[in-house]
Amino acid sequence: MAPVITLASVSPRRQELLNQIGVPHVVVGAHIDESVLPGESPHDYVQRMARGKALAVWQEQSSLPVLAADTTVVLDGLTLGKPSDRGDALGMLARLSGRTHEVLTAVALATRSGIALRVSVSSVRFRTLSAEECAAYWESGEPRDKAGAYAIQGRAAVFVESLQGSYSGVMGLPLFETVELLRAANVPYWCKMPA
Asked: pLDDT tens digits for 27-49?
């Protein structure tokens, strides 16, 4: 089936989630500055990032609606983005250990009618992690490009004591909010996908 949207993300997880709900898509990476602005709240940040990614790709090609998302981990009101190096990742994991944090994922859909946006907020509690576990997790390679230095759908699943909210949102694309946007824009889902 022909694509019905452009996904402004090269994330394999977001592609898998769209495939799961039957949304044929093409992938175009969005290249924007992802720096947090001085004084910017995590909620404002994820919305600005999702909107910015959608608009950046929409300006390149507007033949299909453009879906973009951004995820951030929030602890004590601070944004934990992708780790810059091993030390940064281990520091993030140590701070998350034995505590509850928020995961915010904003989803934006750019169409000829403008841009619509939704935000998913989830609460994730980690069990207490040992320094050895965190180091071994870093060596797996998984946390290198993940907000908060972990992937819930990967090896870090064993860290999660509880989750309230959207599992797919913590993965990076909240499907409930995504389908709300698609339905409002008359974009189909549950399409028959190629085998």
From this structure: 999 999 999 999 999 999 999 99
Catalytic residues: 70
* Cα–Cα distance list, 187 to 50, 87, 120, 191 (Å): 19, 43, 20, 10
pTM above 0.90, yes or no: yes
* Alpha-carbon span 47 to 146, nearest angstrom: 18
Report CA dihedral (133, 138, 144, 149) to the nearest 10 degrees.
20
What pLDDT, in 10s, does the model give residues 97-150? 999 999 999 999 999 999 999 999 999 999 999 999 999 999 999 999 999 999
Give 5-184's CATH code, choosing from 3.90.950.10, 3.40.50.1110, 3.20.20.370, 2.60.40.10: 3.90.950.10
